[in-house]
């Protein structure tokens, strides 16, 4: 069985997709582990990808990862280079609107239309829902007139706002970084109106059946990428400083946020 590699969560532009493929090729050569790159292009469900038994290094959202049984093994997590990430393997959900709509605060979007990606997404569903919790009350349990979804991906969130189908939508901050870097015209009319607290960024994972030896070789290769001149340009293209080791316990915060929302009777952002 040849382990697969997939950047599906973060191949949000063609340049990013190419850079990830080149990085996976370097990791394969550095580790001595043959990898098959799989795009699993949207709208193919990510859940299908994460159920595969041959994942070698595949990006997986931390919320379903923390709940999965049997649980995939974490290989490494990316550390974005922008100063807002403080050198840590974290990310945020940026809540975006159109500049032309003139919203000056999150509260000004209430009563309009919000979009969300899929109900298993932390950045596109769980994090914005948790962020909105404090604004609800017994007299105002619903903050928005309409809640639309699933729009599937960060690109879908972006399109829902740009095309005017939604007034506000959640964006994985690192995905937004990549679009700004490589295709800034797509976000020229977009403004971030609010941002959720940080959470552990989606890591690269391997299926439970992948041997410990292969997992270790892949992990060491990703960690080595952070100091290798061979891939410095690739990391720069991907807006990354390095890859870090992370433990599964860090991702359980997503379950806490989910439980708080459900206990409050807030099933979906809206």
Brief digest:
With 270 residues, the chain is α/β, with parallel strands linked by helices. It has helices at residues 14-31, 46-50, 62-67, 122-132, 154-162, 173-182, 212-225, 232-237, 253-263, and strands at residues 4-6, 36-37, 55-59, 73-80, 90-91, 93-98, 113-115, 146-148, 169-172, 190-195, 199-200, 204-206, 240-244. The strands form four sheets. A six-stranded mixed beta sheet has the order 2-1-3-12-4-13. Strands 9-6-10 form a three-stranded antiparallel beta sheet. Strands 5-11 form a two-stranded antiparallel sheet.
What overall form do the CA principal axes indicate? globular
Question: Might you state the CATH topology name of the largest domain?
Answer: D-Maltodextrin-Binding Protein, domain 2
**Can you tell me the CATH architecture of the largest domain?**
3-Layer(aba) Sandwich
CATH superfamily of the largest domain: Periplasmic binding protein-like II
Number of domains: 2
Question: Which CATH first-tier class of the largest domain would you pick?
Answer: Alpha Beta
Number of DSSP helical runs: 9
Give the overall pLDDT as a whole number. Answer: 97
How are strands sequenced across the largest beta sheet? 2-1-3-12-4-13
What is the SS-derived class?
alpha/beta
Measured as a percent range, the helix fraction is 25-40%
